[in-house]
Amino acid sequence: MFSKTLRKDNYGYLFIAPFFITFLVFGLYPILYSLYLSFTDWDGFGNPTIIGFENYQRLVGDFFFYKSLFNTLAIWIVSVIPQLTVSLVLAVILHEKFVKGKSFFRAVFFFPNIVTAASLGLLVALIFSWQTGSFNQFLMGLGIIDDPIHWTDKPNFMRGLVSSILFWQYFGYSMIIYIAGLQGISRDLLEAAEMDGASKVRVFFSITLPLLKPIILFQVITSIIGGMQIFDQPYTLTNGSGQPDNATLTSVMYLYDTAFTRYQYGYGSAIAFGLFLVIVVFSILSFKMMNIRTKNEPN
């Protein structure tokens, strides 16, 4: 009897084996190999030369790494705060019973998420082109400006433009996640509060928002992970240059440029692990902040 049970378990291992094999080959092995490369000097030809912690020492004093990190954080903050706020408001509205055509509006708001990031970057680059862009033509047609404005020469404007693309692309996705969280809250609880005389606003801040905290934490952490990996939008928008004045040079763009344009694979790997460390730190801080707020709230 024992041997038959053991045989059935072995069949189970066969079914889950493809996932683990795929993960080991295409997930864990590249991670460990890039960790090894971060301690080497390698241009892609010949054998890597072990140089110890030299790449990490260089990373600590690298101006462009800090510049790219600042750009990434600035773009992420400007995009994620309105993204999570607007998506929460829309989710609450579209979760109400009285709203007609909820499915239509959910689909419309989610639509930008299915457009590829590279396509969006190219489209926006064409719209804001200095010489042929439709935005300049529109403003000149209205008489607001007399001559075309070179939008791509303005660092803060370009950062804001990348943030706007990210906001427009992902607010629908965040809205769907919030709606899923709202559907997990008991209607009886909300209706009981309203019967006791609580207004809609009071119900939202006293019941809905506290019960949504796990969803908000999930949104924040996933947005940190995604935000620190911004690449496609600024890359296609600036044709890979990260200009003007390296204002749109994100950390992943700098990693890509170092490893695959200048063929410094060892240093590129060190940048990747530096970025990984930043993501871990921000994720832990977000988790701690949410936990502190929960503990400080009255039961």
Automatic annotation (TrEMBL):
Residues 69-286 form the ABC transmembrane type-1 domain. Its main location: membrane. It comes from the Bacteria. Gene3D superfamilies: MetI-like. InterPro entries: ABC_transporter_permease (IPR051393), MetI-like (IPR000515), MetI-like_sf (IPR035906). It holds the Pfam family BPD_transp_1. Coiled coil: none annotated. GO terms for cellular component: plasma membrane. It is a multi-pass membrane protein. The chain crosses the membrane at residues 12-32, 73-95, 107-130, 161-182, 203-231, 265-287. Keywords: Cell membrane, Membrane, Transmembrane, Transmembrane helix, Transport. Belongs to the binding-protein-dependent transport system permease family. This is Carbohydrate ABC transporter membrane protein 1 (CUT1 family). The lineage of its organism: Bacteria, Bacillati, Bacillota, Bacilli, Bacillales.
